[in-house]
Amino acid sequence: MHATRVDRRRTPITPSQTARQNGPATPDEPLRVSTGGTWIFGYGSLIWRTGFPYAESRPARINGWSRRFWQGSTDHRGVPGAPGRVVTLIESANVECRGRAYRLERRIEEEVLAQLDHREKGGYERVRLPLYFDDGSAVEGLMYHATPANPNYLGDAPLEEIAGQVLTSHGPSGPNLEYLLRLHDALRELDAHDPHVEALTDAVLRMQSEP
Ligand code: SIN
């Protein structure tokens, strides 16, 4: 897997950097470096509440990652002391994660990235990695990843426990349940089968319907 953590204070990616750091998309196909502006890969709220201007958006996937409700949220879907749960990614061999990619306009790219850094400040860092489109092409892009090293990370727990936390948490951006259900619906629209999100949604709906 060719994923590189990015220091946010650094200047934007240049074509020569990307080509050096990521190598080919497949052994015989060079990774295309976008000249039109950085691509951002969204796999959580960035799919259904994009909230920033972009020049182009396409369904996309990344390889070797699984989506999990393992990141605590104290600034969007929970509060300090009562965190909600939002998604991050864990490295998983032979698994692909489907989401949506957005190409930024170069002239406002730095502003948009600064906005996103602020929005994702609860534990996420930028990672540079290849994004794959449905037509078989690939580009260099960025995604926001929360690792176990961040203070809000919660990690794994029994499904019912995660479901209970999602059902009861609430933060400045709204109910945690909204985050899960909107993500679930957005993934359906993208034709993405995500067993973790589906099992969690089923568990939450089951709990909700219990007397
Ligand atoms: C993302 O959507 O790509 C990052 C996680 C989130 O903000 O939900």
Describe this structure in words.
- This protein has one domain (4-209): Gamma-glutamyl cyclotransferase-like (Hypothetical upf0131 protein ytfp), CATH 3.10.490.
- It is 29% helix and 32% strand.
- It contains 6 helices and 8 strands; from the N terminus they run βαβαββαββαββαα.
- It has helices spanning 15-22, 45-48, 109-119, 159-168, 176-189, 195-209; strands at residues 4-5, 39-42, 56-73, 84-103, 124-133, 138-146, 170-171, 174-175.
- Strand 7 (170-171) and strand 8 (174-175) form a beta hairpin.
- Helix 4 (159-168) crosses helix 6 (195-209) and helix 5 (176-189) crosses helix 6 (195-209).
- The structure holds succinic acid (SIN).
- Pfam families: ChaC.
- One of its GO terms (molecular function) is glutathione specific gamma-glutamylcyclotransferase activity.
- Keywords: Lyase.
- It is an enzyme of class 4 (lyase).
Topology overview:
Elements lengths: L3 E2 L9 H8 L16 E4 L2 H4 L7 E18 L10 E20 L5 H11 L4 E10 L4 E9 L12 H10 L1 E2 L2 E2 H14 L5 H15 L2
Parallel strand pairs: 2-6
Antiparallel strand pairs: 1-5, 2-4, 3-4, 3-5, 5-6, 7-8
This protein binds succinic acid.
